[in-house]
TrEMBL record, chains A, B:
CDD domains: WHTH_GntR. PROSITE patterns: HTH_GNTR (PS50949). Keywords: DNA-binding, Transcription, Transcription regulation. Residues 1-65 form the HTH gntR-type domain. This is GntR family transcriptional regulator. The lineage of its organism: Bacteria, Bacillati, Actinomycetota, Actinomycetes, Kitasatosporales. InterPro entries: Bact_HTH_transcr_reg, Chorismate_lyase_/UTRA_dom_sf, Tscrpt_reg_HTH_GntR, UTRA, WH-like_DNA-bd_sf, WH_DNA-bd_sf.
Amino acid sequence: MQIAEEVVGQIQAGVLKPGELIPSESELVRTYGVSGGTIRKAMAEVRASGLVETRHGKGSTVVDRPPVRHRSSDRFRRSHRQGGKAAYLAESAQSGATAEVKVLHIGPVEVPAEIADRLGVDAAAQVLARRRLYLRNGTPVETATSYLSWDVVKDIPELFAENPGGGGIYARLEDHGHEFAEFVETLQARPSSKVEAAELALTSGAPVIRLVREAVTTSGRVVEVCDTLMAADQFVFQYRIPAAD
Amino acid sequence: MQIAEEVVGQIQAGVLKPGELIPSESELVRTYGVSGGTIRKAMAEVRASGLVETRHGKGSTVVDRPPVRHRSSDRFRRSHRQGGKAAYLAESAQSGATAEVKVLHIGPVEVPAEIADRLGVDAAAQVLARRRLYLRNGTPVETATSYLSWDVVKDIPELFAENPGGGGIYARLEDHGHEFAEFVETLQARPSSKVEAAELALTSGAPVIRLVREAVTTSGRVVEVCDTLMAADQFVFQYRIPAAD
DNA sequence: CAGTGGTCTAGACCACAAA
DNA sequence: TTGTGGTCTAGACCACTGG
């Protein structure tokens, strides 16, 4: 812990600059006069602080800046959609980062039990799943799967396309008479499993956030459920809560 | 990783039951025929999964069940306050758990830079801080510090008391003409530092959530900023977002 | 190829818990 | 006192990187 604190301190004090390689583990072994295993644990601590990125065979680099993106609750404003951008790209445009969306799968699937409950469909029903991976500056930060009731999507061919058109799927749904009343988001943070860590290019155990969003129409129906897994270090969430009675 | 998966599998399969001690590390060394260091790392993996709690000198126990509490965004409804309960206790009443609040400190402090910014006060200003620790079923789950502008609180003696009376500090503020318009919550999840883990009785590195809430009055002023640190495994957050234009 | 991080070993010593 | 987890050592071997 002492060694880790010293290294972190050197980074924060600017002795080690962003983009720079920090001393190798064997070098630290020599300078501190401790064994390799101890240095390994110290470096694991430094990594956990998020100030450093380690690559096997190369070394550890001071990270340029923890790239955090804001998720504010006004990202569902219609005015963002009418600008011709999906929520994700609308946000990225504000922060000046390169954003990319990779579509992993679009097609009918058997609905997972938890989603069926939220969508209000039968347990064995077929739904449309749209699974995609979001990248930011080339690194994956988020996987998201939208589930849509079949009877809602069957008349909207755009929802089967990789690119659903300007404004994203929410705009298409409103085009077809599904007017949204509200979105309900449920968040939970937990350590990542191994496969999740691999998907999001995280070290195993690094925190992830699971966010499940229900899109509720003015008729009270949940037409879409979006199940999202995010690298926790990449996001800050902001919600405005009216002080209702 | 293989050993960790096998142990986790045994827990999930019910071979190892909640409350039960799992085999000791030296026992695992014998059964798997690997060295102690390897077992240590495997157990660290199992711990990270959250299925197990380890106590030095005793062993590792299968955790009974992760007790999760909901934080819904309607917990600031005035009707909850008028019922004579603070937000925290109002929530706990719904979930049937024993809740406890321990006041750690109430008094004037020099305002932290980040808070000064949000409160809209000078950098060196004095503010009232109310620091408290929330316990659930006897274990700490959350620390929270409320910061209030001095000129707001100086006329409200209840805010200096351990128990500010029915409805909590928000009710007292509204009693004195500060009517709330909205609350803005900002969340971020990250691994816990050593001291944070100690405060919340977590294993170091387990995810925590930092939540900062600003209470905004109808006159547009932020009268309170509440800085909260929570054990991530204890909370699920839910927010309702109106589909505004 | 040399240097780096990643994993493992066998053993030592310490601190804590419970009988 | 015994058994537990927690930390460290000195050294081995492997896999990856980049010249």
